[in-house]
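The methods section describes the discrete structure representation at length, but only in general terms. Each protein is reduced to its one-letter sequence and a matching series of backbone shape codes. I believe one specimen quoted in the main text would settle the matter. An entry of this sort, consisting of the sequence and the corresponding backbone structure tokens, reads as follows.
***
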Amino acid sequence: MSIRFAILALLDERASYGYEIKAEFDRRTNRTWPLNIGQVYTTLDRLERDQLVSRGSENAEGRVMYEITPGGSRAVSDWFASVIPDNPQRDELAIKIAMAATRPGCDVGAIIQNQRRESMRALQNHHQALRGIDEEDLAGELVIQSLIYSSEAQIRWLDHCETAALRASRSASRGAGGPGGAGTPRATGADAAAPAGKRATRITRDAR
């Protein structure tokens, strides 16, 4: 939905051709979210169907000028006045880690370490992009800072995952060391399904 409203917001400022909309969107977001021209025209067709934009005149090259309708302007005002629900979509990384942690024989520590390296690489790229933004490019600065904070949060979460995996391993080791495991913490996830010795060896190696 963000592309739909972003295009409406740009048209609310001035009527534009499709390629002008793409160029302005790329400029304001510092090309962080690639937007292809096909997506622009598909969205414009849907907005026209919903009577939020209308087709204007064509230039000599056959390009169509798009204009916002009064209903489209109201939709933009409502969008800016609304809040974005704190309802994240399915996070592939979170699901992947959850599945790995509960899969027998899966080296969840290696998965976490590989992802942390990728997240650190992305964070460095974001900081480099931020240094290249013009001082007056407020929109670009805000977008890149959003990515920086997101990468930093992901790295902190991965650190927590690694700590939790190590804690589960230690609990499993204590449980295996007692008489029949009675009265000791119970292992969970992948560790519960693996032999006790392998559990301790695998997670201890992963946490290094």
Strands lie at 16-17, 53-58, 64-68.
